[in-house]
Design goal:
Radius of gyration: 19 Å
Order of helices and strands: EEHEEEEEHEHEEHEEEEHHEEEHE
CATH class of the largest domain: Alpha Beta
Number of domains: 3
Helix content: 25-40%
Number of helices: 7
Largest sheet: 5 strands, antiparallel
Shape: globular
Oligomer: single chain
Length: 284
Amino acid sequence: MLESEPLARHTTYRIGGPARYLVMPADTDDVAKALEFAHDRGLPWVALGLGSNVLVKDGGFPGVAVRIGKGLDRFEMKGATAIVGAGLPTPLLARRTAEAGFAGVERFIGIPGTVGGGVYMNAGAHGAEFAEVLTEASVMDAKGKIRQVPRKQISFKYRSSNLGNVIVLEAKLALIEEPPAKLKELQARLLRWRKAGTPFDQPCAGSVFKNPGGPRTAGALIDECGLKGFTIGGAQVSPLHANYIVNTGNATASDVLKLIEHVRKTVAKKTSVELELEVKVIGV
């Protein structure tokens, strides 16, 4: 357990103040202990994976951050079912299943987070999302109790679920056999597209806003308002993809939040569309 650990080291934004405590559990017992520790001290807790869809405020997080990664990154194929630990990076899931000759998550190659976070928020890419393949999730509640939640009990929406106050530990995914060569070729194409069309090599948190539905994406609306390249402090609306806000080197969380506010107001004023955040803001 680390005390006063800067969360900038644990988020893809490279932004964020310290967590009062940071735990990197080696197994499910450690996760239960971390939650018990938080409970006994009356502290809030938050689960982090690769920190790819979060913006941690400059004041940090005043409780226990539980970083789900190594130790909880099991990968196993049983027939056409993938049994996957929450700490496994999603691109690795996409690669390994493709190599094993199974389709269903091959399009997840560009999702920057872990499987646990992906299941929790119903992450998706290129028209595919976790809701389509998940058959069961193993979750731990705030009291440290583990339960299996079948897919039919989970209500998934676009980039959200009703899983509530739990930590995802493992997921079962139903896949379909498909020649590995075909899947790898698709993945190479998707990665080329991502490299050309998104600022994947700069600190960012993926898409900042949810697509509002309707003909135009969030990125298209922001672009239409002439906001590409707009900068506040070290935070910039990416000139490559308007729905990405990048950290150009020394951005603070408050730079990003001010930029988010500016984008929202401008888009609402010019297009009457209220953009909703996809990125999760945590901390004080």
